Amino acid sequence: MEPEFLKSLVIVFGISAVVILILNRLNVPSLVGFLIAGAIVGPYGVGLVKDTHLIEILAEIGVILLLFTIGIEFSLKKLLAMRRALLGGGLQVLLTVLLSSALSYLVTYDIRKSVFIGFLVALSSTAIILKMLADRGETDTPHGRMMVGILIFQDLCVVPMMLLVPLLAEMDVKAMDILTRIFKAVFIVSAVLVGARWVIPYLLNQIVKTRMRELFIITIILLIFSIAFITSGAGLSLALGAFLAGLAISESEYSYQAISDILPLKEIFMALFLVSIGMLFNMQYLINNPFRIVLVVFAVLAIKLLTGSLSVLLNNYPLRVGIHTGVGLAQIGEFSFVLALSGRTAGLIGDELYQVFLSASVITMFFTPFALKYASPISSWLSSLKILKWLDRADRDYPMKASSVRKEDHVILIGFGLNGRNLARVLRSAEIPYVVLELNSETVNTMKKKGEPIYYGDGASAEILHKMGIKKARMLVIAISDPVATRRIVSIAKMENPDIYIIVRTRYLSEVEELKRLGAEEVIPEEFETSIEIFSRVLSNYGVPRNQIEGYIAAIRADNYSVLRLPEVSRRLFREKMEILKDLETETYLIDRDSPLAGHSIKELNLRERTGATIIAIKRGEEVIQNPAPSVELREGDILWLIGTREHINRAIEYLRSDSFLVEKYH
Fold first, then answer.
1. Which end of the chain has fewer beta carbons closer than 10 Å to its terminal beta carbon, N or C?
2. How many CB atoms lie within 10 A of CB 157?
3. Binning pLDDT at 50, 70 and 90, where does residue 251 land?
């Protein structure tokens, strides 16, 4: 039995590695690769793995660890900070469940199964979307923030959804049974939260004092599985217990270390979970029922595109952002597999419906990277259609009075984050007219009360830019974290006003050439401006002349940062400078009340010729005289700063203490 199990693991990981390597070249996420690998090695594929039972046991551990990491990454404070995006998540989940349930009821004629199918469709892939947003640098864009908030809400919904699976599966559910389960859930959650506040931090503190990393990891795993075991024994799910364990540890100061230690284990077991799901995928069923699968895929995509877009629009975002978000969230997520397994065990879905779900899920996941790649042009095109203009809430909810916008020789500032606010402060101080365009309605309302000339709107809209006076503006400054919208804004601005001077802040060097080509006069990539600041300080510390450093910086900027590498600096120059500087020291000397130095000039001291040391500065009270002239007269209380070798400085100290210079002066 043991060799067979090890053989299965070798096959699973070996095939997975090959498939993921191939798909990586097509820019397809590894999650899809694990599903395809499972389909290949499973009983419906080549059949390399016959006994899937042990793999499924390990997959259950993967689910537990996945829910634990989700719980540990959330806190009440973090959730409250994202309340607007979470509201969008609530709308998206509610609308998707309602539409999916209504549509599936026409097929199943069973309200319980229909609601469960609505649960499955409502969830999107956190793993795929977060990775794609990070890779494309779109996490902080308006559509990126909305996607993340909605995904977080969906992940939180997994727990109550799994709690409802047993209730949906029962034909006759008594009110007392529902109340009993709710009471158990409330009691266990309360007990865990109490433990998170007092017991767990104390326990982990004692463990950490031992300085034994192995003991810390074992304790974390013990907490995960023990809480999951308790919830399971109370009739709740293992997943709920794992989530609560993560929530409990998230309140301690050791949460980051815990997730760091558990993350590698989670990745391994989650891989096995996805492979085990893929093993249940019947390729023959897909081949035999292509029309049914394609119909389900299109239905899922249409519903999720609609509900995702509406949930964002109802949060007062422009139509373009709503459509972009809807396209990104159109797939079925990995947590749907967790729910599907529970529903299959509880009898809510049979084998045929399960195969339809698996086939549709894998297809929607597979096409997600390609959908996100073209989401921007798709959303821009759809939002420009006149038939959909009435859906755009920006003009209706935030009307812009034409008379209130200065329309001549002004600066248009798009984005009011940290960079935008700093620029606005400088423009206001210099009495330069400016207007601000921002997509965050809360920021607009707050800053408008403070007297800022700020307006709500999407800079990627030609109509909005017209209202901001783009045709007669002198300068356009774009300070947003949305590369797609930035390119569109530059293109529209140059088309409307070829003479406008455009400055763009971007995050990545790869954006510079494209933005320059579209018409931006200056593009400032944050990542390389930071690098320039760092290397200039390093070179300065090594004694490289300031004018030479500034020459390097100017050359890099003039070349559009295309080759950000340190220009070749003579090694001989560094070697000579280090040889000169390594033996030099500085020292201070106080001219006290009885010192004969007071009243005499530096020239009269003749210090450099007599000792080899040099006076480089004089501290006189709060004033510092740098590089003092020979004619400067020394006073009582002055502090002299000397530079030279140790031998020179020792000789200078002895010379200043004596009356030798007076003897020489009057000799």
1. C
2. 20
3. low
End-to-end CA distance of the chain: 107
Q: Is the dihedral of CA 498, 501, 505, 511 positive or negative?
A: positive
C-alpha distances (whole Å) from 22 to each of 19, 267, 278, 362 are 5, 20, 17, 17
Q: How many CB atoms are located within 10 Å of the residue 269 CB? A: 18
What does the alpha-carbon distance between residue 657 and residue 591 come to, in Å, rounded to a whole number?
A: 10
CB neighbours of residue 97 within 10 Å: 22
Strands 475-478 and 585-590 come out as unpaired
Residue 144 to residue 151: CA distance in whole angstroms = 11
Residue for token pair 């053989």: 7
Q: In what order do the strands lie in the sheet with 411-414?
A: 454-456, 434-438, 411-414, 475-478, 501-506, 522-525
DSSP H or E stretch at residue 505: strand 501-506
Closest residue by Cα to residue 478 from 510, 446, 521: 521
Q: Are 499 and 408 in contact (CB under 8 A)?
A: no
Query: Is residue 191 over pLDDT 80?
Result: no
How many residues can be counted in the chain?
667
Amino acid at 401: K
Q: Which of 196-210, 492-506, 549-563 has the highest mean pLDDT?
A: 492-506
- Ordered domains of the chain (ranges, CATH): 2-378 (1.20.1530.20), 398-520 (3.40.50.720), 529-579 (no CATH), 583-665 (3.30.70.1450)
Contact status, residue 35 vs residue 333, Cβ threshold 8 Å: no
- pTM of the predicted structure, to 2 decimals: 0.64
> 570-616 pLDDT, tens per residue?
444 445 555 555 567 778 888 887 788 888 888 888 888 888 888 88
Beta strands across the sheet bearing 639-644: 585-590, 639-644, 614-620, 623-626
Give per-residue pLDDT as tens, 481-512. 777 788 888 998 998 898 899 988 887 666 77
Cα-based torsion angle of the residue sequence 107, 111, 113, 115 in order, rounded to the nearest 10 degrees: 110
Q: Please report the beta strands in 169-299, taking only residues with DSSP state E, as ranges in sequence order.
A: none
Give the 3-state secondary structure percentages of the chain, helix then strand then coil, rounded to 5: 70, 10, 25
**How far are the Cα atoms of 134, 140, 325 from residue 149, in angstroms, in the given order?**
15, 11, 11
Phi, psi dihedrals of residue 408, rounded to the nearest 5°:
-150, 130
Amino acid occupying residue 461: S
What is the tens place of the pLDDT at every residue in 133-156?
A: 766 767 767 788 788 788 878 877
Contacts by residues 571-576 (CB-CB < 8 Å, ≥ 24 positions apart): 573/544, 574/542
Distance CA 590, CA 178 (A): 85
